[in-house]
Amino acid sequence: MVEAYWEVGRRIVEEEQKGKERADYGDFLLVNLSKELSSEFGKGFSYANLKNFRQFYLMYPDYKKSYTLRSELSWSHYRLIMRLSNRLGFAQGTGSRSNGRRDL
Questions:
Q1: What is the pTM of this model?
Q2: Residue 103: inside a domain, yes or no?
Q3: What counts of helices (H) and strands (E) characterise the chain?
């Protein structure tokens, strides 16, 4: 599932936001996307989840290349790392620094 969440985040950033870190002001992209995906696929695509998926992709743009991390950590681990990273000031959602387990 972790890889699927990363892929959803990638699609949000690369396709919906056209490579930008965030959608344009007033687009309500995640709100609208949440409604569309929830009606098509059911639960699991809340605004909060989509925001997490996007943040996950921005923090780990090379996730698919790092088999070690992918095989050892669950989605709960990644969510905890993202929350801690935000609190500690690492990668303020920019994706400019890819934090690994050793960084934290």
A1: 0.71
A2: no
A3: 5, 0
3-state secondary structure the chain: CHHHHHHHHHHHHHHHCCCCCCCCCCCCHHHHHHHHHHHHHCCCCCHHHHHHHHHHHHHCCCHHHCHHHHHHCCHHHHHHHHHHHHHHCCCCCCCCCCCCCCCC
pLDDT tens by residue, 68-98: 556 678 888 888 888 888 777 654 444 444 5
What residue type is 47 in one-letter code?
Y
d(CA 73, CA 27): 33
54 falls within a domain: yes
Which residues constitute the domain of residue 59?
A: 2-88
73 three-class SS: coil
The reply to whether 96 falls in a domain is: no
